[in-house]
Amino acid sequence: MLVQVLMQLAVVVTLMVIVSIGLFVGRYRLRETRTEWRGRIRAAAPITVVLAVVLLFNSVARQIVPDLSWMIGWNLTWAIYDIEGQFILWLQDQATPWLTAYFSFIYIYGYVFLLVFPVVAYFALSNTRPLRELLAAYTLNYTLGLVLYIFVIAYGPRNMMPELVEALLYDTYPQYQHLTRQVNRNTNVFPSLHTSLAATVTFLAYRTRDVYPKWNVVAILLGVSVAISTMYLGIHWAIDVVAGIVLAYVSVELAHLLVGRWSLSDWVDGRVPTIGGLRNRDP
Amino acid sequence: MNRNTTDPVDGVDRRSVLAAGAAGLSLSLSGCIDSVRSVVTGEEDDQLSLSIVTVPRDDNRETVQIARHLESNLQAVGIDADLTVRSRSEFLEMTLIDHDFDLYVGRHPADFDPDFLYEALHSTYADESGWQNPFGLTVREIDRLLEAQRLADPDDRKATIEPLLEEIAVEKPFEPICRPTEYRVASDRFEGWDNSHLATRRGYLGLEPDDDVERLNALVTDARPSRNVNPLSATVRERGTVVDLLYDSLGTLVDDEIRPWLAEGWEWDDETEDDGTAATVTLREDCTFHDGEPVTAADVAFTYAFLEDTSYTSATHPSPAPRYRGHVSAIDEIETDDEDEYTLRISFDAGREVAERALTVPILPEHVWLAELNDRIGDLDDFSAPQGRWGIVTSDAIDPIGSGPYQFESQSERDHLTLERFDDHFTLDEEDDTLDADVHLEPTVDEIRFTVDPGSVSSIERVASGGADLTESMLEAFSLADIPEDDGIERYDDDSWTFYHLGFNTRRMPCGDFRFRQAVAQLIDKEWVIDEVFFDEAHAEPLATPVTDEWTPDHLEWDSEDDDFVTRFLGSDGEPNVTLAHDMFEEIGYRYDEDAGRLRHN
């Protein structure tokens, strides 16, 4: 079941990325990438390693985070549920089969595409700074998000109000529950990492709007759709989404401050002859 | 991640390490939470406030809906009610172990015999943690009636239980709401699904798989078995399907009757000095535990003594197991014979029916549990065994060795628990002529895998698409419409002993007052619950009393025309009649503040 869902996801997202490369990146940048890719990979390698380590740590930590959270016992479901509750109900009142299909697609496929495509798009730029900022911002999202998950136990609307909030995604397409279960626990709703990562991409797309003007528009549309989809599908409360946007903003700002502050490649350049350097000496 | 079976002691049990670290943290945060709460709920005043705890929809869609129904009705009459959701094991920790609740909505596992009420309500257990008396009820008359039904003559027992049930309906330590029908779907790769109840050991035995089938893949929506199968833990399960497969018991339930299982047979002796009874139990010879050690009378005697005190007299205070308390309390004494390893005499403080129920506890291997205990004791001077909480009754690191028809193979957290057939199980002994083919069903399939699945709808889909054979967990009523009309999949319906109920913590005011409990119980519209939550009368029946139909006295059968406090809903169509409710609460000493719309303490 899971394998089937993953295959489908991989195929759809790959197709979307290929089409988008044609639409937004263009042939000229691809040609340039072919000659410059080594240098760009070298520049992005350190932050990629950091991100990989954080993701690995995250998957291990998620095994113990729930236990730790229950012991800390800062359960905020009731508070969130007291404060709002009505908004999600209103949003769900707008449900139509088409909207459900759209938002389900966005929640799964749109979201993964939104995260993957900018990595490709920024890699296609000579200036590696947007790519490094993007990866740094992803890292920060996961790190800060995990800390919040430890402290806050909260169940989403679908878990609290099953008769009012339909779990549209899981009731309509139960197979997706196999996928989301792998990456998320049902007590980890505050903040919405779906929203925060989508908003991160959107914020960065806005920063790079001079380079990718069309992508900026698409990213805003997708980012907003992802945020709405989490609430429409009964997975997150509005507060989680707001917190997700704040987390995204903080992550993007921090990434901007931090990236380029320490340069691993400068440090390496001074000590080890690089492959490029060796080759230049060759003839 | 396979379970590490080479390390029997969880000296560095993950939970306890985390608990130590989190203890300081939670202390420092608790004040903080209170202040958040008072900001949210307004200034402190004397409004009546109650908190209801239950599990989230992912764990049980029905309980959270019932809890919300009650929450909204309590609010409608001016009580500051709030709803807390906890994961299944945290919920049980909170209600059974810590007794940290006002009200809870849950499903009680109950049992085939009404004697489960002894464990649930006897005042002796009011201070203990576990399934024994989580309500903290201490009512002398109920104690007396619980004891009387135990000693009653089998012919008179129903008549003795009647006043008990009436007294419970008046005292209302809990309010039974409804009894669900257990629905499951199964594939046609096996035959015999409808032979026995699929929540019991027998449901998995004697099945006839197709020729090429080597594994039964059963879907569970509860991930706890993939993590911990400790037979004594109160919080890792509600009922004991897996434990029943791993462990044998002396007797087993076959069509409303306890028949010898691990015991070859027993002789009753009703001529005891007291009112009780006694039995001489003969064990099957040549039975072994999964590690090859023989099952003897000493193991049986150990099991009952150990359940009574899991510190095995090493701690200053006895530490009874948080399960099987009622079963074990029916036993007065066990005598073994040094000469004969396979015979023991058990005397009971109870009549036959209750005594037979006591024979259904899992038989534990003495060598495994004593070694485990000794490892934990370490230093006797400094040894304590906090009842219901200490390592031996909570740990996931104790070898799950029983003598049952299936043995532990592997488990992977949140993924699966796999059992494999125990080829030396007595039911597979072809030469044993004491076996009765109808009672001693064999484990037929090589392997049973309990796979964790996210929910009823996806479980049904998985069985329908051939990815699994059975939905072990009861299907939620709303998902029944998703069962396809298909030859390869069929629905099986079983009656249930379990019941949905509202539990009160009688240790805390205002729930300590039985009149208040009666008033709150009248704010649940059971028929509305059936319509809105279960969708059909066939899916659940409203209850006035918690025992099965055969034990229910006529006047405690559900009757929607009844207008007494036992069954009445104070309102209609799920909505409370606020004026009547205010009168009701004012009559028992509360004051309704019209202006603020709040019910206050007087």
TrEMBL record, chain A:
<keyword id="KW-0812">Transmembrane</keyword>
<dbReference type="InterPro" id="IPR026841">
    <property type="entry name" value="Aur1/Ipt1"/>
</dbReference>
<feature type="transmembrane region" description="Helical">
    <location>
        <begin position="135"/>
        <end position="155"/>
    </location>
</feature>
<dbReference type="InterPro" id="IPR036938">
    <property type="entry name" value="PAP2/HPO_sf"/>
</dbReference>
<feature type="transmembrane region" description="Helical">
    <location>
        <begin position="6"/>
        <end position="26"/>
    </location>
</feature>
<keyword id="KW-0472">Membrane</keyword>
<feature type="transmembrane region" description="Helical">
    <location>
        <begin position="241"/>
        <end position="259"/>
    </location>
</feature>
<protein>
    <submittedName>
        <fullName>PAP2 superfamily protein</fullName>
    </submittedName>
</protein>
<feature type="transmembrane region" description="Helical">
    <location>
        <begin position="47"/>
        <end position="65"/>
    </location>
</feature>
<dbReference type="GO" id="GO:0016020">
    <property type="term" value="C:membrane"/>
</dbReference>
<keyword id="KW-1133">Transmembrane helix</keyword>
<dbReference type="Pfam" id="PF14378">
    <property type="entry name" value="PAP2_3"/>
</dbReference>
<dbReference type="InterPro" id="IPR000326">
    <property type="entry name" value="PAP2/HPO"/>
</dbReference>
<dbReference type="InterPro" id="IPR052185">
    <property type="entry name" value="IPC_Synthase-Related"/>
</dbReference>
<feature type="transmembrane region" description="Helical">
    <location>
        <begin position="99"/>
        <end position="123"/>
    </location>
</feature>
<feature type="domain" description="Phosphatidic acid phosphatase type 2/haloperoxidase">
    <location>
        <begin position="143"/>
        <end position="256"/>
    </location>
</feature>
<feature type="transmembrane region" description="Helical">
    <location>
        <begin position="215"/>
        <end position="235"/>
    </location>
</feature>
Automatic annotation (TrEMBL), chain B:
<protein>
    <submittedName>
        <fullName>Peptide/nickel transport system substrate-binding protein</fullName>
    </submittedName>
</protein>
<feature type="domain" description="Solute-binding protein family 5">
    <location>
        <begin position="257"/>
        <end position="597"/>
    </location>
</feature>
<dbReference type="GO" id="GO:1904680">
    <property type="term" value="F:peptide transmembrane transporter activity"/>
</dbReference>
<dbReference type="Pfam" id="PF00496">
    <property type="entry name" value="SBP_bac_5"/>
</dbReference>
<keyword id="KW-0732">Signal</keyword>
<comment type="similarity">
    <text>Belongs to the bacterial solute-binding protein 5 family.</text>
</comment>
<keyword id="KW-0813">Transport</keyword>
<dbReference type="InterPro" id="IPR039424">
    <property type="entry name" value="SBP_5"/>
</dbReference>
<dbReference type="InterPro" id="IPR000914">
    <property type="entry name" value="SBP_5_dom"/>
</dbReference>
<dbReference type="GO" id="GO:0015833">
    <property type="term" value="P:peptide transport"/>
</dbReference>
